[in-house]
Amino acid sequence: MATRTRAVYWDANLFHAVFGREAGRIKLCEHIVKLSSQGLVQIYTSTVTFAEVVWVKSIVDGKGKLNKLSPEHEPIIQKFFANSYIYPINCDRRVAELARELMWRHALKPKDAIHVASAVSQQVEVLHSYDDDDLIPLNGKIGNPPLKICHPGDGDGFELPLV
Length: 163
Description:
Blueprint: E1 6-10, H1 12-19, H2 26-37, E2 41-46, H3 49-52, E3 55-60, E4 66-68, H4 74-81, E5 86-89, H5 93-106, H6 110-121, E6 126-128, E7 148-150
Parallel strand pairs: 1-2, 1-6, 2-5, 6-7
Antiparallel strand pairs: 3-4
């Protein structure tokens, strides 16, 4: 029996975990990237993520202020997003209008609404996010069928294999 390719949407904070090598997140993100490189997973994300990814939470200056990747990281970022398993979603009129509707209905911030609208527009079943305040509480409340919004590995079939 053939294995079905799974589609998952990644919020920008998963790419932050990858590029910032965030403890407690990097192993599972790398596991999903490995599955993707084997053709088992398609990772969808908004083209807005291509800009958002510059800010990485795990890179903090001496004063505790969020920092960003340096321009020297640009070739790494470009190479990563050029992988055939990354499926960029343009924020076109349809996605933007759905995002605005989600902002009215669920009090989402614009970028969060764009991410959710992008996932819904592609009928992706699972949206991975580490946004416990704004996105995770919307699990199962948006889309038809309802979009699962969760941390990776949280009952979505992307758990790390036991070694």
